[in-house]
Each structure stands twice: as C-alpha cells, then as structure tokens.
Design brief:
With 186 residues, this protein is mainly alpha-helical. The protein is 68% helix and 0% strand. The chain has a single domain (3-183), classed as Hypothetical protein af1432 (Orthogonal Bundle).
C-alpha cells in the first residue's frame, strides 16, 4: 500500500472513531480538527507516520478505541515499523493526567504533570502538537467564554518547554497563541 492509501485508510478509521462527535468551539464534525492538524503538518513534512498520527492524535483520548485495536488496524495497512512509529506518536500525544484518572488534582496540577511528560516526547510528536495548538487556538479565540485565556496561557507554557519539533511550525504555533491572546486583550 502506498503512502496516500495508508493516509486515506487512517482518515477513514479516525472518521469512524469520532463519528457523532462535534467540536466544542466550532459547529462541525470533530474529524475536521484532525484533518486540519494533518494538513498543517503536511505543509512541513510528507512523513507518513506524522501525517497519520495527526489524524489519529485524539482517538485514544476521546473515543472508545483502544491502543490494541488501533495498533492492529495500523499493522493491517502498513509494515510493523510504520505502525510502531504512528502508534508511538499517538501515545505521546494522548493525555495521561486526565481528570477521570486524577480527580484529586486540580487542572493546574494535571497540566503541570502533563507538561513534564510532553517535554520529553519526540520531535515528531512535538511537531504534531504544534499543529494541534494552532488549530485549537483558531477555534477557541473569539468564542466568548473566559476559558480561552486559560487555554492560550497553557499553550504558551507548553510551547516554552516543547521546542524540539519542526522550527517553522513551532514559530507559527507561538505566533498563533500570542495573536490569540492579543485578540482577547491579554
């Protein structure tokens, strides 16, 4: 299977996994977010493992799909090395310190622990995270609630610690967050 076919199979898998989900800050099917994240990454790389991870980056966190199910799917459409690369990126991009598993911690503590974990992730993971931040920033700015400021400040903190990914995309993410904060008066 060639790279384009693998990406299309992954897109279909992610679409099915996110079926019925809508974006919180945009009136659209959830899958539009990972598609935009992938498109942003594609402007900087054609590495199939990065593009597929971009499409899958929220599947483990936001759907009922398990790591085992995802890996089995990936092994069926690609070689084991590619499946492992994609899977490692998706796992890196999946929040570990979530409220459900750490109810005793407030958001600040969970985000601090998550940041400690994220700063150790691979440059490829960080590249996808930059594209994710850019898209989330575009969705959240101007939605009218006070959460945008909290979110954008968290993103700025993340970007200060996660600087090993694609340098152009990093600069774009930082600029996006800074412009978002300016637009909402912070």
């Amino acid at each position: 299977m060639d790279k384009a076919e693998i990406i299309e199979k992954v897109r279909a898998f992610a679409t099915k996994a996110h079926e019925g989900q809508m974006r919180k800050y945009a009136d659209e099917p959830y899958i539009r977010h990972p598609e935009r994240v992938m498109k942003t990454c594609k402007a900087h790389t054609d590495a199939v493992h990065i593009l597929c991870a971009a499409l899958l980056h929220d599947v483990l966190e936001d759907t009922t799909v398990t790591e085992k199910e995802m890996f089995s799917f990936l092994e069926n459409i690609s070689d084991t090395q590619t499946a492992n690369k994609i899977m490692n990126l998706v796992v890196d991009l999946t929040d570990v310190f979530v409220k459900k598993d750490y109810p005793q911690w407030n958001r600040r503590k969970r985000k601090a622990m998550e940041l400690e974990r994220l700063e150790k992730t691979s440059p490829d993971s960080q590249t996808v995270k930059y594209a994710d931040i850019i898209d989330n920033t575009n969705d959240i700015v101007g939605n009218g609630d006070g959460f945008a400021v909290v979110f954008l400040r968290e993103c700025r903190t993340v970007l200060k610690k996660m600087d090993k990914g694609n340098s152009e995309l990093y600069a774009q993410a930082l600029s996006s967050v800074d412009k978002g904060l300016e637009n909402i008066g912070n």
